Amino acid sequence: MTVTIEHYLLLSAFLFSVGVTGVLTRRNAIVVFMSIELMLNSANLTLVAFSSYLGNSIGHLFVFFVMTVAAAEAAVGLAIIIALFRLKLTTNIDEINILKW
Amino acid sequence: MIQLIYLTVVLPLIGFLINGIFGSKIKNEKLIGLIGSGVIGISFLITVGAFFETLALPVDDRQTIVTLFTWMNVGSLDVSFAYQVDQLSLVMALIVTGVGFIIHVYSIGYMHGDKSFWRFFAYMNLFIFAMMNLILADNFVLLFLGWEGVGLCSYLLIGFWYDRKFEKSTTADAAKKAFIVNRIGDFGFLLGMFLIYLTFESLNFNEVFSRATTFAVPEHIFGFIALFLFIGATGKSAQIPLFVWLPDAMAGPTPVSALIHAATMVTAGVYMVARASIIFASAPAIMMVIAVIGILTAFFAATIGIVQNDIKKVLAYSTVSQLGYMFLAMGVGAFTAGIFHVMTHAFFKALLFLGAGSVIHAMHEEQDIQKYGGLKKHMPHTYIVFLIAAIAISGIPPLAGFFSKDEILWYSYANGGLIFWILGAGTAMITAFYMFRLYILTFEGKERFGHDKHPHESPKIMTVPLMVLALLSVIGGFIGIPEIFSGEHGNRFHNWLAPIFKDAERKLALFGTHSHTEELILMTLSVIGAAAAIWFARYVYLKKPSIASNTAAKFRGVYNLLWNKYFVDEAYDAAIVDPIVKSSRTVLWKFTDNKIIDGLINGTASLIETLSSNIRKIQTGIAQLYALVMILGIAAALFWIIFSL
Predict the structure, then answer these.
(1) B621 vs A: CB within 8 A
(2) ipTM > 0.95?
(3) According to a count of CB atoms within 10 Å of the terminal CB, is the N or C end of chain A lower?
(4) Contact residues, A window 5-34, toward B, CB-based 8 Å cutoff
């Protein structure tokens, strides 16, 4: 059995769905954060798969961009979570709902 | 000179601009007065030149149209700034610039020392500008421009001393009253103009009047046009029912009363009727209305004049009454006689007002004739000219008033009927009576003023204009000597104006079936009547003053009725002004404005507020909810894209 593009796409869709579910359902900000990373990486997987399938390197290029942005985002996001924790003594995002009317 | 006639319009405008813009900087009364009256003087000379030039032309070519530029040209409507020089407009232009010039010169003395001297002359020049537009216009639109312009100047000049008290309110209120009452008339005039345009598809005088004789127009259309135009005339010329503003217009400075509210502006309605004579002649029913309104105005205003004590009020009601005569003349088809009376009236009424101004000046702004008396020896010049004017207006031959008034009375008998003559002659007697009451209480008898007043004759700059007007009041009538005295030449004034009115007179088909003997008898009767009234006034107010007070006491009811001017103002207040004020306050202000308009605006605001205070609740602050909505949105968008392709 050879591994075809469909397998990669199905895996990537599965990973993305896991990420979405995590973002929507988990209360802990760090887990939500990790779920977002999961979504990003599932997108990366798709890009690489298509890059290989089509035989050009543009997809690889994008993966590097996404990885850099993800790294930067992780740094900023963790900093925000730490700052919020200092203020609220919690990382439960349903308790952090002060940005409203 | 005829081609230069536009200068008589432009020069006063220049005078207005100079005095109006730089007047407050000039500070020199002599210079302001020189500019103000100089431009009018030059206009007068140009008008005189144009008059003699026209006189030299053959009778059929005496109409010249001087076109300056096209004002508006829309579809079939073509209105130009074009001035029509003909027999009628020349007569009016001579009166306006001539009498206007005299009054301007007089004003230099009268307004001496006033803090707004320059403003006065600016307004007066603006008035002459508007008035010349009115009488020289060759179409209804330009006439209306002048018509509104004189109304504006009247407003400005009545309220000239806007900080002074006048009767129970201020001069500003009197000015407002004049303006608003005039608006009612102007509305009628506008309707008349619209109807003329609908009917004749032009507003140009020559076109309209020639079409009025050739187009097949039903009589009731003529009737409505004439009625609407006449409503305009009742406003401007202070006839029943719109005369109430003129007595209040006396709040203005006296030269204004003389120029605008006696000699020129108030005769604009008479001029307009004369100008459109063919339209009026085509509506006999409205001619009758005009005659009746005219004679009623003349009679009732004269009766009010008997009891008034304010020198200017008496003259104001006298003006209303004399204007009634002019409309009586128009109504019975004696257009020439009406214009003739406009002219003589301009002379002697301007003289009366200026004389009154001289007296008021001497008596330190006192206007109550009960506090005058015996001014004869203090003011010999004013006294003699005032006496001349009083005789002239009373209709004693051979002064100017006699010729014009008697002509009107004669035609009202010949074309109208005996009742018009009786009321007209009765009014003439009343006029003679109250004019001599005014004269005697002012100049004759004992001095009834305190020692704090030192009456003195006015300076030359005021008395010389008075003398010129007095001379005109004496000789002014001779250009219109009736046929029975002048023989084969006929009436010169009639001959001069005949081409203007020939269509209207042919339409009316008034053929003189009355003899000269009748004319002489009626003339003699009215002169005897006037002389008797003068004698009676002398007897009552000089010999036996007790009669006046006894009569007043005996007929308290009648006296009160006259003293309160038939309660017309009160009736208008009760019937029109108060309901409007009250309904405005309760319905328009408290209900429509406060409830409906404010309600709509506040309602919109509170609706938005209620909606948004509910909608904003979906902003929960929970980030996961936002993410959920976003994902659902993306999913929906994807579905739509995928399945719609």
Answers:
(1) yes
(2) no
(3) N
(4) 20, 23-25, 32
